[in-house]
Amino acid sequence: MVQNLIKIKFKAFSLAELIIALSIFSLITASVAGFVIESLRYEQNRWRKVLATEKFEENVRALEDLRNISWQNVVQLTDAGDFYTQYQGSGYQIVPGKLIENNVEYYFNVFYTNRDSEIPVDAPLGILDLNSRKVVFTASWLDTFGFSNLQSQNMYLNNWETLDLKDSTFDEFSLGNTTDTTQITNTEGGEVKLKNILYANWCNPVITLNEYDIPGNAQAKTVFATPGNAFLGTAGSSDGVSFTKLNIEGVDPPVLQVEGDFDGYLINDIFVVGDRAYLSTTNDSKEFVVLDISSVPYSEVKSVDLPGTRDAYSSYVVGDMAYVAQGRNVHTVGLVDSPGVPTIRDTLTIAGLFANVSEIMVRGNYLYASLNWDWYELIIVDVTNPLNIFVTSQTSVNDQQTLDIYVNESGTRTYFGTNSSSQKEFFIIDTSVKTGARPIIASFDTSPMSIKGIAVIEEDKRAILAGTGGTEYQVLNLDTETIPFLCGSMDVNSGVNDIYPVVDETENAFTYIVSGDSNSDFKIVRGGQGGGDGFGVGYPEEGEYISRVFNTESATTKYYAFSWGEEAHFGADLKFQARSGTSADLSSELWVGPDGTSATFFTSPLGEYFPLSFTGKQYVQYKAIFNSLDTINTYILKDININYQK
Length: 646
Description:
Radius of gyration: 45 Å
Strand content: over 45%
Shape: elongated
CATH architecture of the largest domain: 7 Propeller
Helix content: under 10%
Distance between the termini: 120 Å
Number of strands: 49
CATH superfamily of the largest domain: YVTN repeat-like/Quinoprotein amine dehydrogenase
Structural class: mainly beta
Number of helices: 3
């Protein structure tokens, strides 16, 4: 039997080939595994993005629902941290913090946003829009490999469901109330601003519209004044009323009314303290007369027969002591309240044989006297002891007539005027020291006017000089006392015999003058510190406008932004406060600003939020506070807007 042998041969693998094969297998396996894992990671992230999108949409619906219920639900979240929404019971609730669900962290933040008419919402160059909010939703998680993933989405909400209370027309603003210094105008449909006023200025003197004619032909000689009153005296003729008291009210024009008068003397000077008027007269047996002017008719209660026959020209009263200038002498006279003859305490001769003591003033322990027709024009007398008065200083400036004098409150400066055709007439003397000849600080030439009356307004640093001849009313600027200069003047063609400055309770300033005008002896000149645009036209320093009381018709009112339209001007200011209540009578409610206290104000016209204390109050009112810092400019309020929700 023949056997056929079949040989099968196998190819042998080397070790290298085996390693390569295993490596290829591993790579393929790793690639497949990596692909599978990446696919799982991708799917996981995609799924979480889907969850995030769904959560975003849920939050959008929740916030829109809450916004529709109350804009306050959104407002109170602004810049307040992280929040998420959660459905509880019958609706969504806002929960502080972050929600972790399916290993995904969810939260949102609410921010202020900007707006401009030509720039989209949240434009960086826009302006703050209090009626809108930007909401940023965020979802974050860690994937399979531990990498952080973040997805965010923005939305914008606004208060389109809220209501507005407005003032923007003339008729609407007219429902509110202005103060004396504010006005409602209709230049552009209705606006509020400070009222135009005329700033009186000592340096722009103007005779007011009202004057007074003392009955008869007697010459108006002297005037004394207190706020709201002028006291007029006549001399030179018995044909006229000797003493008149005028009540003066108002400014433009002032209203004059005679309260009472007294007759029987020719009067050179008047001094008034309380309900007593002290008269310096030409009567030889009653040179010094005391009137009771507390009631009409006025009555004479005391008089003094001074030594000799010369007239009394001036008097000054301090407490219970009167100082009376008569001819060459100064007398100290003790006054008592009970009827009787006042007692002469001392008499001092301070002028030459033919001279007169024309005017006196007392400051502290010293009396200052101007002399007429003497070698000296200014004398200082120590009156510390009324029983023993004596001269401490004598000063000469030009050996001329001197009719009036003014001494500042501290006694350190004395101002007087003279009658000279060839030398200066007005002088400022340093009387800070009371001995020796006092130095002249400055002088001024009023020629051809002879000075009869002087008034110095210390606070405003102005001197008013009045008299006869030339320009009869001249005002000097004393800002630099060593260089006085004329800052204003006017003609009083009949001449001025005496002047007296006065400032009333509302800071209105005047100079009262008595003139040689037989038809209007008494005149009033308006004065003041000036202001406005240089011509006296401007605005008051402050004023207010109080709106009508708005009714929201809801006891659950929520108040949001308060904003307004304005025309701003440099040198002025406008701010607001508001008040609210449960009844239409808000008179007892406190005016407050954004923080709910009276110490703050609404100052941004773009809008600021009402304090939460206003919530639940049906009635609201605002107050606009205007300030003109330079008296030239005023803000103009054009409209206001109160944003609220019932």
